[in-house]
Structure formats: C-alpha cells, structure tokens
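Figure 6 in text form: structure in, sequence out.
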C-alpha cells in the first residue's frame, strides 16, 4: 500500500496549481511544438520533433506523479500541531556545538526545498528532529554513517 503524503494547505494548493498549469498550458505548448516540428518533414532526422516528444513525455510523467501524490495527500490540520514539539509545519532553530545556529521549516517530502531552508520529515535531520522539543539534544545519523548532535534551541509554527 502506498504511503500517505502529509502536506500543508499551502503545499497542497501549490501542487494543485502546478497540475492544472501542466494540464491546461504546458500540454498545449508541447502539442504546438510537435505540430510545428512535424511540418519540418522527415521525422527520422528531425531534432525539434525528438525534443518536443521528450518534453511531452516529461510533462506527462510529471502530471502522473502529481496525480499520484495528490491521491495520497493528507492535508495537515494546523490544530493538530503542538506549540512546542517538532513536527511537520514547525520552524526549528538548531545548533551543532561550535557552529552557528541553523533555522529550518519541517515539511513533507513534496514541499522540501533546501534553498528555502525547508527540510523534509524524511531527511536524516528532519526525521531525527520529529517529536523533540526546545532544549533536547538530538543525534542525527548521516547517510555516510557519521553522527552529528544538534541542540534544539527553539520550536515554533512555520509562517
């Protein structure tokens, strides 16, 4: 059985918007590219046609992926969040000894984005932090087997 995907309301809405854009805008753009490329003649040596068909396959794969994700999605109820325990939807400040403090939003896997300091509950750090509170020390086992200990400095709801 497929695993449920926990998302915030904003994350769910973003996925729905992307799916709608792919279905209505991107599919038409790709179909137009294929139509134009067909007009260039022999399809066996037509780079534009091959590129457009690859783009079409990519768009269709992303649509299928989004549809599957949305079927498994459970929108997190903000009232379920404890104000002081780390879970999806929380903002945390952590610090490794001798290092600067780091701040992250804990998200489901579909919303993770390191460029925005949004880490998944399925990542090594995110997964290890789940259930902890400010003041806790948390051991995180990295993929290479090494262990880092973080002190949780602060826990609050994500904005």
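Output sequence:
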């Amino acid at each position: 059985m497929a695993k449920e995907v926990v998302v915030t309301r904003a994350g769910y809405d973003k996925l729905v918007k992307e799916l709608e854009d792919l279905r209505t805008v991107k599919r038409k753009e790709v179909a137009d590219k294929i139509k134009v490329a067909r007009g260039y003649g022999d399809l066996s040596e037509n780079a534009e046609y091959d590129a457009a068909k690859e783009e079409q396959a990519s768009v269709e794969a992303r649509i299928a992926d989004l549809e599957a994700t949305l079927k498994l999605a459970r929108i997190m109820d903000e009232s379920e969040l404890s104000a002081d325990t780390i879970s999806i939807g929380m903002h945390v400040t952590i610090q490794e000894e001798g290092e600067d403090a780091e701040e992250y939003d804990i998200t489901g896997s579909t919303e993770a984005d390191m460029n925005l300091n949004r880490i998944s509950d399925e990542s090594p750090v995110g997964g290890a932090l789940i259930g902890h509170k400010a003041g806790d020390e948390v051991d995180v086992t990295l993929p290479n087997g090494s262990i880092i200990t973080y002190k949780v400095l602060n826990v609050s709801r994500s904005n």
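Caption detail: The helical segments are 9-38, 47-72, 124-129.
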